[in-house]
Write a structure and sequence with these properties.
Chain B: It comes from Thermococcus litoralis. The structure holds two protein chains of two kinds. By secondary structure, chain A is of the alpha+beta class. Chain A has three domains: 7-204, Aldehyde ferredoxin oxidoreductase, N-terminal domain (Aldehyde Ferredoxin Oxidoreductase,  A, domain 1), CATH 3.60.9.10; 253-422, Aldehyde Ferredoxin Oxidoreductase Protein, subunit A, domain 2, CATH 1.10.569.10; 428-499 and 518-599, Orthogonal Bundle (Aldehyde Ferredoxin Oxidoreductase Protein, subunit A, domain 3), CATH 1.10.599.10. Helices cover 41% and strands 13% of the residues of chain A. Chain A contains 26 helices and 17 strands. In chain B, a hairpin with a 2-residue loop joins strand 3 and strand 4. In chain B, 27% of the residues lie in helices and 24% in strands. Chain B has a single domain (2-76), classed as Beta-grasp domain (Ubiquitin-like (UB roll), Roll). Chain B has three helices and five strands, in the order E-H-E-H-H-E-E-E. The chains are: A alpha+beta, B alpha+beta. The A-B interface holds A 231-234, 236-238, 240-246, 248-249, 252-254, 270, 273-275, 295, 312-313, 448-449, 452, 454-455, 458-461, 464, 466-467, 495-496, 499, 563-565 and B 5, 7-9, 11, 17, 46-47, 49, 51, 53-56, 58-59, 74, 76-82.
Chain lengths: 605, 82
């Protein structure tokens, strides 16, 4: 097989057993790799109804056929598991250098099973794999853990993925950090790792990814890199200002969620924009493996020294969402989230929900004791509660459950701005209807990277769609975006390439690497298969479409109070049936037998 | 007068974040801007995102979108992220 290492590394922490298995060609032809392949294994190997924190849940690190190649942005990997935040499928993507290194060590997938008796880490040096004691690392932050492990490992070229204190404490917002500042951020994957007493994975590999047609691959890659460099977004906006270039445009369009989505305009957005970040804190760009874009930011603040980020989502979650305008506080808060191993989106979203509950008199100061009042705009809140959440101390213990469980415990789940219990990201869908559908139907819950409809609805790429249109045409684009995204996520590339590349470009790179010679439509069909197998996992886990494919009441019923989208709500009931139909699902949102047969998935459901 | 806000790379070209101009359509406004800041035309030749009071001109009257006093026009070079 080309593009693949052809091996799965399976580590059982209960039995302390390490096995290497062959990867089958028929599996990768169906599910590509990364997100798709990881989900296939998870669905086949666990009962989707299992408690996410039980040893029966598995944690899968999955690379794709383009991970570790010179394909532009070929540095991504996925963490696939059952989420303790949503109770559904989790697949969290990350960049940096860890994914390629896992592949260089000879493995396409790392499947972790069971639960260690005491804290451990997994050390991988090509074929030499060991489970090692990590008691001395337990409780340590991400930066220190990474440094210590690299020192112990004795090879500075090794790469580390680890959890911070939040993952150890089973915080449902905990992430897995690799290369110190890149995050497999969402759905609480870090808490699953913590539940297995697994602090870290250190990997060093010396192999190469073999390609089907090396010359063809090189010429195809060269052409794609040129497209990316010449594109004004991937060759201009992103390298110059990072992802935070979006702050102003999303705010000017009136869909920058502010004060827990109470409005879509934040009057201090200018002060926390990519432009402001570049002027005040940017030291240099920091591209991930094989990335010609380089949106990553290395920043400096005297209180913390050198750090990375913050990204658009983090600036928003720890900023406007909580009414905080002070960029310095946000830069520090983002650093703290990285260090404690917390997802910035869900942390910010949970704090914002807590602030609304506090301001409405539902959470009372007596409950917080001496802790800072949870008021919008109080930047003191950020730094104090981030640590409390990570350590599950005081009121942080309640916040550590995420916004939905928090709000529900007070009898007000409507103040949690989440879908499937996962906090929504930085776009108010009252200003982008298609994006609202992707929120409602994303298999991993509230998420912007499972079909980024902001691109056509707001940024005009690759077409200019009216953000308020809810026609079948819009639903069609949602499906295309979701399926193409599944292909990119399964290949091992970064989604940002799609600002410059189209489906044909990905098909060309995949074919040259794997030698499969699939048509673009066949690759997209694989993407559709990935989408549907995730849906099957969720249905088996207990998803009820009528109840779960929806949005917070506020977005469906409360008209946007001000700005360009004033008066708008999301017309989900109008567009969702059109979307289900295009997916080949019945009117209630269940995949039809016919569709499953067409995708070869009828054996699963 | 129309209030014009510029973003990203346009800021260093214009030398400020905001300015005021007299124009009756978006097309006319752009002509005036381009003649004063020729580099801006080049910067936007691969596309631009132009909003009038937060609404994209693509879904209004495109370059013929009418402008009146106090309107806010926001101009971005192509941007993306996520």
């Amino acid at each position: 097989m080309f593009g693949y290492m052809g091996k799965i590394l399976r580590v059982n922490l209960t039995k302390e057993e390490i096995k290497v298995e062959e990867l089958k060609e028929e599996d990768v032809k169906e599910f590509i790799g990364g997100r798709g392949l990881g989900t296939k294994f998870l669905l086949e190997e666990i009962d989707p109804k299992v408690d996410p924190f039980s040893p029966e849940n598995k944690l899968i690190f999955a690379t794709g056929p383009l991970t570790g190649t010179t394909a532009p942005t070929g540095g991504r990997y996925m963490v696939v598991t059952k989420s303790p935040l949503t109770g559904f499928i989790a697949s969290s993507n990350s960049g940096g250098f860890f994914g390629p290194e896992l592949k260089f060590a000879g493995y396409d997938l790392l499947i972790i099973e069971g639960k260690a008796e005491h804290p451990v880490y997994i050390s991988i040096k090509d074929e030499d794999v060991e489970i090692k004691d990590a008691s001395h690392l337990w409780g340590k932050r991400v930066g220190e853990t990474t440094d210590k492990l690299l020192e112990e490992f004795g090879d500075k070229k090794a790469r580390v993925a680890c959890i911070g204190p939040a993952g150890e404490k089973l915080v449902r917002l905990a992430n897995i950090m690799n290369d110190k500042h890149r995050a497999a951020g969402r759905s609480g994957v870090g808490a699953v790792m913590g539940s297995k007493n697994l602090k870290a994975i250190v990997v060093r590999g010396t192999k190469k990814v073999e390609l089907a047609d090396k010359e063809k691959f090189m010429s195809v890659v060269k052409e794609k890199i040129k497209k990316i460099k010449e594109n004004p977004v991937t060759g201009g906006g992103l390298p110059n200002y990072g992802t935070a270039v979006l702050v102003n445009i999303i705010n000017e369009n009136g869909l920058y969620p502010t004060h827990n989505f109470q409005t879509g305009v934040f009057k201090y957005a200018y002060e926390q924009s990519g432009e402001a970040l570049a002027a005040k804190y940017l030291v240099r760009n920091h591209p991930c493996f094989a990335c010609p874009i380089g949106c990553g930011r290395v920043s400096y603040h005297p209180a913390i020294g050198i750090t990375e980020g913050p990204e658009y989502e983090s600036i928003w979650a720890l900023g406007a969402s909580c009414g905080i305008n002070d960029l310095a506080s946000i830069v520090i808060a983002n650093h703290l989230c990285d260090e404690f191993g917390l997802d910035t989106i869900s942390t910010g979203g949970t704090l914002a929900a807590a602030m609304e509950l506090y301001e409405k008199g539902i959470i009372k100061q007596e409950e917080l004791g001496d802790a800072p009042p949870l008021r919008f705009g109080n930047s003191e809140v950020l730094h104090y509660y981030i640590e409390k959440i990570a350590k599950r101390e005081g009121f942080g213990d309640k916040l550590a459950e995420g916004s939905y469980r928090l709000a529900e415990s007070y009898g007000h789940p409507e103040y949690s701005m989440s879908v499937k219990k996962q906090e929504l990201p930085a776009y108010d869908p009252r200003g982008a209807e298609g994006h609202g559908v992707t929120y409602a139907t994303s298999n991993r819950g509230g998420c912007h990277v499972r079909g980024y409809m902001i691109s056509p609805e707001i940024l005009g790429v690759p077409v200019k769609l009216d953000p308020h249109d809810v026609s079948e045409e819009k639903a069609k684009w949602v499906k295309i975006f979701q399926d193409l995204t599944a292909v990119i996520d399964s290949s091992g590339l970064c989604l940002f390439t799609s600002f410059a590349l189209g489906a044909d470009d990905y098909a060309e790179m995949l074919n040259a690497a794997t030698g499969f010679e699939f048509t673009t439509d066949e690759w997209l069909k694989a993407g559709e298969r990935v989408w549907n197998i995730e849906r099957i996992f969720n249905l088996k886990a207990g998803l009820v479409p009528e109840k779960d494919d929806t949005l917070p009441k506020r977005l469906l019923e409360e008209p946007m109070p001000e700005g360009p989208n004033k008066g708008h709500v999301v017309k989900l009931h109008e567009i969702l049936p059109k979307y289900y139909k295009l997916r080949g699902w019945d009117e209630k949102g269940y995949p039809t037998e016919e569709k499953l047969k067409e995708l070869g998935l009828d054996r699963y459901y | 007068m129309v209030r014009v806000r510029v973003f990203a790379t346009l800021r260093s070209i214009v030398g400020k974040n905001e300015l005021e101009l007299q124009a009756s359509t978006v097309g006319e406004l752009l002509e005036k801007l381009y003649s004063e800041y020729p580099k801006m035309k080049k910067e936007l030749e691969k596309g631009a995102i132009i909003l009038v009071n937060g609404k994209n001109i693509e879904h209004l009257g495109k370059l013929n979108t009418k402008l009146k006093d106090e309107d806010v026009v926001s101009i971005f070079p192509p941007v993306g992220g996520g």
